[in-house]
Structures are given as C-alpha cells and as structure tokens.
Amino acid sequence: MISRKQELSLQLNQAADALVLGATILLGYALRRSQLINFDILSEVPPLESFVWLFIVVMLFGPLLLEIQGFYQYPLDKPLHRSLRQIAYAGVWMGLIIGAVVVFLKLSIPSRSTFFLFIILSPLGLLAREAAFRAIYLRRLRRGGYGETLVLAGNSQKMDELVAALSPTQRMELHIAERVDLEQHPVSVLVEAMHRHSVERVILAFNTSAAENLQAAIVACETEGVEAWLAADFVRTSIARPTYDSLGPTPMLVFRATPDLTWALLIKGVMDRTGAFLGLLLLSPLLLLIAIGIKLTSPGPVIFKQQRAGRYGRPFTMYKFRSMCSGAEMQREELSAFNQMSGPVFKVANDPRITPLGRWLRRSSLDEFPQLFNVLLGDMSLVGPRPLPIYEVNNFELTAHRRRLSMKPGLTCLWQISGRNNMSDFSDWVKLDVEYIDNWSLGLDFLILLRTIPVVLFGIGAR
Q1: What pLDDT is recorded for position 365?
Q2: What residue segments make up the domains of the chain, in order of their start?
Q3: Which of 63, 65, 116, 255 could link 14 by a cystine bridge, Cβ 3.0 to 4.6 Å?
Q4: Residue 324: is its pLDDT beyond 60?
Q5: Which of the following CATH numbers is that of domain 148-234: 2.60.40.10, 3.40.50.10700, 3.10.180.10, 3.40.30.10?
Q6: For a pLDDT cut of 70, what percent of the chain falls above it?
Q7: Does the structure show a pLDDT above 60 at 193?
C-alpha cells in the first residue's frame, strides 16, 4: 500500500505474469502438438524453437502493457470486469506489436492453432494468477502477516479522518500501533512510541496551523531514520492529483491535472509518429490526386496554413488542404453575424467561402489529412483536443476553457465522434475535451481511432 513492499510486489506480479504468458504459449503448443485441439491444416507443428520470438515479445511486453492499463493498481479492491477490460486492452496492443513484428521483421507465426489457444488461455491464466495472489495476500493479512506496523501522529481529528477514509482492505494492510496527539503531547512522546514499536514509518496528520509541531515531528523522524509521510489534505483539489518531487534541495508537493509523463505517454508519442508516417506513405497517391484537384478547380495554394494553439497555447503552423476560396480569412468578419457556435469558435453552415471540391473534402474530412505532417513533426497527436486558431483561444470567455490546451492537440477526439458540428455550444465541446484528458489512456485513444473510421467514411457531423 504505502510501503516499499508495493514496488517489490509489483515486480513480483509482473514476473509471475510473464511466466504465465510464456506458460500459456507452451500449453497451447502442447495441446496442438498432441492433436487434442487443432484449428489449422498443418499435419505437424513446427519445433518449439520456431516460437522463440513469440515467447520473447509476449513475456517482455505483456507485463508492461498490463501495467500501462493499470492492471496492478489496487488489486485487492478491483472487480472482475475491470481486470477483464484491462487484459482486453493490453491484448489489443499486444496484437498490434505482434503484427508489427510479423510485417516489419518478416517473421511468421508458426502455428495458428497455438496462437489462438494462447489468446484463449492467457486471460484465464492472468485472472487465475491475480485471484491466487489476492487470496494468499488476504489470507496472510487476516492472520496478521504483511500488515505494516506504524505510528500515527498529529491532530486527533485529522487522524480520525485519515483512518475513516481507508477501505476495509487498506485498513487490514496497516497496523496502527499507537496514535500520538502532538497538540496534547510533546514530540518526545512520538520518539518514545517509535522506539517502543520499532516502526519504519510515521504518518503525520496535522492542521495547517500546526507548522511548528509538524517541523519538529519531521526532524524527529529524520533523526531516527524513520520515514515521515505527511497527509496533504490541507490542500483540497477536485481534479489535480498530488505527486511528490523536488526543486533543487526544496521538497515540492505537485498537483497535476493532466496525465503524468509515463511509459504510456511515451508509447503514445511513438505510435503517433509511426501512424503518421505510415498514413502519409499509404495515402500519398490520394493526397496527390486531391492536390491536383484543388489546383485545377480554384485559384490559390493547395495547402492552407494557419497559426493554431498547441499544448499550453504554444502557436504552431497547422496544415490543411485548402477548402475555401482565396482570401477567405478576410471575409470572416462579414459572416460573423451568421456564426452558429456559441463562444469564441466560428462555425457557419453552408459557408459561401467553401469551394465545391472543398465542400466534399470537408464532408469526407480529407482536408484534415495534411495534419499528419504536424503529427510527424510532433506538434500534434493522432488523438487529442482539436487545435483552435490563436484568435479563438485569445477570446476564451472562461479561463477554465484553457484546460483543453493542457494536452497536445490531435486529429480526432471525443468531439469528432460525438456529432462535432452538430454541437452549437462551445462549453459542450470543452466538456468532451476535459473528459478525454481526465480519463486518458492508450485504450481510450485506440477506441476513439476505431470510432473515427465510420465518422470519416459516412461524414457524420461534418460540413
């Protein structure tokens, strides 16, 4: 829970899951080789050596993908459906990795039967491992094992609130040997309690007015070589998540309202650039045809460039296929009376500035495809809040709307798959962007990309 044992437990669970994944490949191979189960037409299964690359990929990336999906968080209080969803999302990404290995490294899956059996058996194995570890851990907790002995100190009311906020399982993980009210007793009583119970951790719960007692308690723990954990509920936040960091020698309590820099975000960046590169490569003939069509049907440049607000409002040049007549920006003020979007965003139905070809490009979203270059350059992501022009961002009526700028803008997001231009209230748009930011995961990105496909093909909500 709060101990270094948590990190050791995470590593142990990951190692166990790597072995489970390897064992399910081996079990699938044995079932296929014995002809008990057969999904392919091979008369004989290739030797086990042919599966070495699959063992390496699955056992190396499997636990990492599960961790990214939060599979190892709160295992004692987690319902079965959440574990299944996390395994499913990790399985999708594993399939993409295996597919990439097959395509780019020219390797092949030696036996489809073995692979299908692995797909069936691995979730069962992972769930069984999780259930077994949970049962063993809870059994030890009920017998008094694993629970960490500690001292709780500080303000009596704050200590009561801290304990009341714990779940029953979390309470089993802790053995509070003694509570010391430091508003009624000197710090020496805390020191005696540490000696008496030989604890390695003290949890401090103070009011904001008790800075002097708090400093003395931390110094006492520091002198004893005992960890001091400060309950930081004196700062109330509704969105931001607290983490700890340091600025030089100064300890800092960090409140972060956006996804922390993790392996998941790094993988998102790699997937963005890889996807943009492959997209440009595969779509290059179509992009060339569109460019020729724009050049032949209306005067002006093929590519429309505009300054848009990137992450935290940093300006960048966004690229689109030109879908309007030349000088369209100059006519915006004349059409402002026909704006159908509340707030700073400018949207007009049947905009007279749009060319005939441009109207088709917009309905099919093909005008957005040059933004793959922005993704390749790192200015945008495949999934993220849509980037707005600088002048629209400068006209935000509510400061809270700027929170949509806290993640890198993207080609598609929840707004795109939720009717987009059918929305007339900018606040509803922002709510969808904030919902995406607060619930971001690689699985959510993948789901949005899948749901974007029919939206683009059928032009849902586009104009």
Answers
A1: 86
A2: 5-142, 148-234, 263-458
A3: 63
A4: yes
A5: 3.40.50.10700
A6: 81
A7: yes
Q: What's the maximum distance between 2 C-alpha atoms anywhere in the chain?
A: 87
Q: For the residues 366-374, what does the mean pLDDT come to?
A: 93
What confidence tier does 250 reach under pLDDT thresholds 50, 70, 90?
low
